[in-house]
UniProtKB/TrEMBL annotation:
NCBIfam families: PduO_Nterm (TIGR00636). This is Corrinoid adenosyltransferase. One of its GO terms (molecular function) is corrinoid adenosyltransferase activity. It comes from Marinococcus luteus. Keywords: ATP-binding, Cobalamin biosynthesis, Nucleotide-binding, Transferase. InterPro entries: CblAdoTrfase-like, CblAdoTrfase-like_sf, PduO-typ.
Amino acid sequence: MKLYTKQGDHGDTSVVGGKRNKGDARIEAFGTFEEVNALIGKAQLIAAEEKSGSDLQKDLERIQHELFDCGSDTADIRPEAVKKVTASTVEWLEHRIDQYTKEAPALKKFILPGGTALAAELHLARTVCRRAERELVRAGETEDVPAPVLMYMNRLSDYLFSAARIANSRAGTADVEYERSAEVFTTEQERKNKK
């Protein structure tokens, strides 16, 4: 089997259920999922080098598979298609975010992306994830996009933020607060006390 097909030489690509121009918003979105996936792959290698925890490494590998699922679901434009990303996929991310939030130091202000090499890579993946989410929203302005995939990408950026904070915390590296930030992160109890 040859790796190249020459079918995209004129700017078109195949999706399940049809063909699209490579500049189509849907194609842009799942192409950006691939960018996020590559960055997460690099982060996983750094996590192994920095000994940041097998839990984080396992999470990142699982997310790589789920990003392929997101791409597959987004590329399948058939109305009857059975999707791979579900509410439970999103709930798993929420569970991991909650666990890492409890483990990390309290957060009051915005922080600068960086710290350890792993944290910096996870922050980079987070920003590309946000771009993928925006592209998926743009695609959704003119056609149906899978709602669970949109929720997943939104939650994934939060996961990557919390994972970056954990990477710094476990390495004994403090997050650097944005020096002109107000205190924007408060607990439920703190919000009640302000009323």
